[in-house]
Design goal:
mainly beta; Immunoglobulin-like; seven-stranded mixed sheet; 4 helices; 36 strands; about 45% strand; binds CU-O-CU linkage; binds copper (II) ion
Amino acid sequence: AVIGATAFVLAGCGIAGPGTVSTVGKVAFETPLAIPPLAESTVDADGTRVFSLEARAGTTEFAPGVASETWGFDGSYLGPTLVADRGERVRVDVANALDESTTVHWHGMHLPPEMDGGPHQMVEPGGTWSPEWAIDQPATTLWYHPHPHGETESHVARGLAGMFLLHDEAERALGLPSEYGVDDLPVIVQDAGFSADGRKEDTQRGYAGGLGDELLVNGTRGPFVEVSDELVRLRLLNASTARSYAFAWGDGRPVELIGTDGGLLEASASLDHVRLSPGERAEVLLRVAPGERVVLQSRMTPEIAALDGPVAVMNGGTDEFDVLEVRAAEQLDPSPAPPATLVDVPDLDPSEVAADRRFVLGDSFEINGHAMEMGRIDETVTVGTLERWTVVNDTSLPHSFHVHDVQFRIASIDGQAPPPELAGWKDTIFADPETEYELLMRFEDYADPDTPYMYHCHLLWHEDQGMMGQFAVVEPGQRATMTEETDHDH
Ligand code: C2O
Ligand code: CU
């Protein structure tokens, strides 16, 4: 049954949502962590790097001998990791072998709106869609997932998601761990529900959306990973549909954060934990000693979740998970210490702001009082300008805010400068209750009055309920239009 927001708020006091979850000390870590394969590519005559992905249905064994029905790209669960360099032109031939329409959105990518894979770029069953664009942004960890309006939560929960890594010269010069699957590890974290015999089941829906009581990392239940280098880079992606995490090391050592959604930081930051809401990424470094075992955990207290008392429904109250065990070999290859300063993260100058907009997240899954409509463009932005978007979570529950096409900077949170983990390039933020965020973003290019980009809450059930809006980027003086073809009525 679907529980609406209003029902939850009215039921209010005393309702604790799905309850407290703890898997700490209960996860056996008996299964080697799956590493999504690197996607193969070819380079065509004009130098374009060409990938292909096929969305398909299949079965996956999360427990030996027990098949679950799942979806994946080129496999039965999740998808391969795409890798490209800044300055390259890429094309991805996306085939849909499912029996329903879907899309593939390149989360965090700067690209033309027709290539974005939002709800206007549906791929019919049996169809192929071939977006093509030039990679023009710093090295970072991006990801891809479906975005069909009203069905995003279910398509992602079934297993459609993968990573898209970008490299550039500035990153290469740092000598960071960069051997994929060896000392540079994709860590795709999702919650899921399982029956007693290990079949993946639909999760229980709380206010945040579907919440499962167990975690999968890269689709592996109870994963461990063996490493043989002193320094390991983990690319954390919260690919859950609703659950947020506060990642920390089990032995209390600090989390060394080097990168956020859109790129590396100016310098690494030592943190107690790194909080990621759905869609957010973090790159962290871990230095290991020979033979040691270190457990990545998530310890989400009501304080970190920005919740208190009876409204602890975001993650079902306090929750804590054992996520992944890192096992260091007895003999480790030495790794150079990472440089003290990483990359230049140039500031955006607020005096250049050409337009101020306000986005109020309200109680009935609306933004500025509206639910998403495929045929309505909510905001029109002039290409080449810097804008300040003030996002206000005007509710007593957490939401999030994601903007397509751009990487933004957080200028302030309730008037204060952001902490280090929110000071770099971001495309998605956890929006704490009753909190105001000022975001600065530049819309460099790709004016197209007919095809909008999206902004939305990345709690995918909220997005499906309409907590989403559309913006078009246009030439100065141009008006946004919605053509009949792009207006798929849902
Ligand atoms: Cu990760 Cu609009 O999505
Ligand atoms: Cu929301």
